[in-house]
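new request in #modeling-help
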Amino acid sequence: MMLDRRRLLTSALTLGAMHAFPGLSLAQARPLVFATFTGSWEEAHKAVLVPAFRKANADAAIVLDPMLSVDQIAKVNAAKANPPIDVMLHDPGPALVAIGQDLVDPFPADKSAYYKDLIPEAQDAMGPAPFFQVVGLTYNPETVKTPPTSWADLWKPEFKGKVGITNLNSTLGTGWLVEIARMRGGSEANVDEGFKALEELKPNLAAVAANPGALATLFQQGQIDISPGNFNAIQILKARGVPVEFVAPKEGAIAFKTTIHIVKNSPNKELAFKLIEAALSPEVQTTLMNSPYLIVPTNTKVAMSGEIAKVLAKDTAELKKKFVFQDWKKINEQRASWIEKFNRDIKI
Amino acid sequence: MASVSEAKSLVLDRITHRFASGTMAVSDINLDVKGGEIIALLGPSGCGKTTLLRIIAGFIGQSEGRVIIGNDVVDALPPNRRAVGIVFQNYALFPHLSITENVGYGLAARGVDKATRNKEAQRLLDMVQLGPFGERLPRQLSGGQQQRVALARALAIKPSILLLDEPFAALDKNLRLDMQIEVKRLQRMAGTTTLIVTHDQEEALSMADRVAVLSHGHLEQFGTPSEIYDQPQTLFVNSFVGTANKMKGVVVATDAGGAKVALEAGGEIIARAPKPVSASDKVTVCLRPEHLTFVSDDTGFGGEIGMALPLGATVVHEIKAKDGTSIKISQARTGGTPLREAGTPVRVAPLAAGLATVFPE
Amino acid sequence: MKSATAASTTAPRDVTSFSLGLALPLGAAFAIFFVLPLAQLFYLSLHNDTAATVWGLGQYIKFLTDPFSLSVLGATLLLGAEVTLACLVLGYPIAWLYQRSGSRVQTLIIMIVLLPLLTSVVVRTFAWIVILGRQGIINSVLQSLGLIGTPLRMIYTQGGLIAALAQVQMPLMVLPLITAIGRIDPNLSDASASLGAGSWRTFVKVMLPLSMPGIIAGCTLTYAAAITAFITQSLVGGGQMLFMPMYLYQQASTLQNWPFAAAISIIFLFAVLAIVALFSTLGRRARGYGDAR
């Protein structure tokens, strides 16, 4: 409610101001604005991506303006003619929304030095994926002595009242439901089996978190012992001493592309392209792959090493084998009705 | 008519109270109030009179002593079981209840059904001449009307004792006298034993059958208004009730109940001595302004006129005595009484022997 | 001390008689930052499709004919009622105690009551997660006392949510109550007692009606705050308990269905206004309103 009101207010105000002071719309020379995500994303981009970009572009001015995907879309929507953001970062769901609302320009792949080196799943005409987010099983090694190996382990009776999930508001929650459905013969177009599986999971459910971040708290409080979880989020928890481990299930870890886009009508298109180039470069991706960032690279020229090589994949070939990619176009078609069904049915 | 079969007596038996802080509020108070009497507790603020009232009502448990109403020691009873009616200084009417509901409140607490208590409330409102105002809220009434409601409310429970806490302090001077008469009338009709707490000596003297003068938690004197005014037993009573000129002197001779005092201002005076004094004691002599007169012989003491104040029915002259003491003398303004010029040397003496009172220092 | 006739003849100057010009800055801010966005929200809600191109009442019809949506609204209003009741029952004695304490204890009470306001809502809410969790303070104590074998599930339950919200909103209840009770003439309870009323009757017949302005104000504030407490609702309530704020957030942010989210907001707004109106009607019916001298 609060977030919502604030956002509506911002957009209303922006709109109001645009009408009241048309002069504001005049294109002005301003630094490149990159809307990254908050938290560890912002830290990683500030420490690695921005310096690399500035080094390659004669210290060009750049501003990080971290915000949620939905806020990026709202801001650009409110001022399409003179967007306050030049480069957007999106999860698969919002990326499709942004493209659908005609907010992004196609990525000039032919100009790019690195685009062709990306694994095919990361290549997208409307905006490539410089990073992957990986979802697998998270467990507490102090209470779960035998590491789980499959999504199916969540249904084991020994985890009665110990399993945590998130609702479908998050990419993680929705992607996981699709994966469960696929495991039982469903698909991105049909998650009925996933809902049936959820129904069977109820005795084991300890909590349905409102967002993936809340899962971390639940681990810390011993409220849950096992859950689907984001590889990077788990690394942060681990680094803070919370007893959690990540394991890729044998069905394959779910990989979400995090795509980067040039905003339509951006006054800084050239610099925006340059920033994306930096994000796709093997140098930046290699640095981000290493500790403490541990961000999964998409450039095939990056040699896997460290924790990622150990836990996820030794090289691109194995990565492609072990990762599962989902068709978010199909998912978005029915997501609203799934959320509705989840709202109604999942009560514990 | 609140018919009280038999007015209850009230006895305060060696009441002493100390506050939690250790301050002595009242000390060893003995009062014996007869059924149906009106008693005034008179004293300046902080003298302990309100504490005494709250002890009688049961809001405060005294440290020592007993409160006896009728034949019952009531110390163990909470306020709601003492049947003591109170009219508060600010009336304390329930602002959210109608006048009728206010008056009927005590009856409701006693389980009287609504019809009966409304009838009784109406009877009492008629008695205080507020018959048509039953439906109103307290804030829709004037101060005097509110006070009459408070009185009716207190009388509705047929209290054995009625306590009035500075009942007229909030009223205009003109209205005050009317209400004093009204209250006295109602008290006579109801016949309820009544205690009025006041700092206003005129109020105490005019309304009460007997007056208890308090100072610093001590009972200074308990007597009829005439006794209090004419035969003050202590220097405090003499100066607090009415006005008194105070002059310093030394006893030169004594006899039964009296003493001859040599004033520092010169001259000698024969004075009544409520407390025993002996020769060569240093004393204070009190002289009421209305008990003094100008004399042409060499009795009394000398001085000169400081200022003349014509106060309507009386004329007051301020006199500087020889030792610098300021003395007031008040005379009825009969036709032709001249105002005396400042600086005129005069001689002043009591109108009669025994009108001066002497107290040991 | 007012004079004998003042009460009936001269009313104190009405606050509304002051120059309206003084209210202009706030009024303008209100218009720009509240009325305008609200109008935009309403405009948005009058569209049948997510892109907001087709006019119609479809979103309202969708909400008002959908038992699930109505149940979310009902659950939210019920949650507010439960939290408000908890705050009132727990807060009244605190306010009462405050009025009967010495100044040092009063300062202490105010400190304790205000403490939740001085910490961030997120911190407070996480504290409740720590308290209510499986290995939280309550479960640890109960287990060490041998009262329970397995930990109770309190977090992500309605009861836990009510406790957390009640604590967070407590100042909103206690502060108006302290003011209202403080305005009651202490002689009134003495008067009631001297007229023969026991302490219960005095409370019910005198103190309670006279503290009604504070109760109404406290309930209105607590209620409004509890039902819109998005952060606490989602962190302590979890993802499976759906209330209006989360419902409309979900529609707007995850599903980008702004017209439906706008309709939810408007319906929610009117439901809350109806409740607030009900409160103030109750308040006005309690006589002696605002006159607890």
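bot summary: The longest strand of chain B covers residues 245-255.
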